[in-house]
Request: fold
Amino acid sequence: MNDSALASGREPGLLPPAVTWGLFAAWAVHDLEELCTMAGWGDRARPRLERNVAWVPPAVWRRMSVTQEHATLAIAVMGGVMASASASGARTGGRSPWFQAVLAGFGLHAVPHVASAALTRGYTPGVVTAPTVVGPFALWAWRELRRAGVPIATIPPAAVVLGPAVVLGAHVAASGLLGVRNRWRQRRGRG
Reply:
């Protein structure tokens, strides 16, 4: 038995399911905050944002305004990504490079949440659970992976852009799906 497994009171190689499925649960708690606060936040915060971060072009602030439908759909798309990573981690005992990459991205994304609130001098969606759920969960999960003797996958530094790209992709997918739905409703209304 290795020292870290001995200290944790379990056999080496046994990873608690709370690590792999906990990723999905921690994401759900965090995104519940975003689900409750994202829609309309851009419009309500825009005067403060324009005043405190004047160098940002107005078009950026316009794009930050999302409806509840859009926020819900984008979060659902991200839910699929997070569920996939958690399932992959559970299936492989945490050894999945996909699980580990998503865990790393999830933990790291707490930093921009906190930084954006500091930069804009006020609340931003997700800032409450980023330092209280996201960061602590990720640190705990990495510690548990090491305790279980799980080999840590080499995650290329370029993977850092994967997180923001996936989030942007979820928003693009939400916009596209809502556009398709709206066009379908228009055609149906004419028919």
User: Anything to note?
Assistant: The radius of gyration is 19 Å.
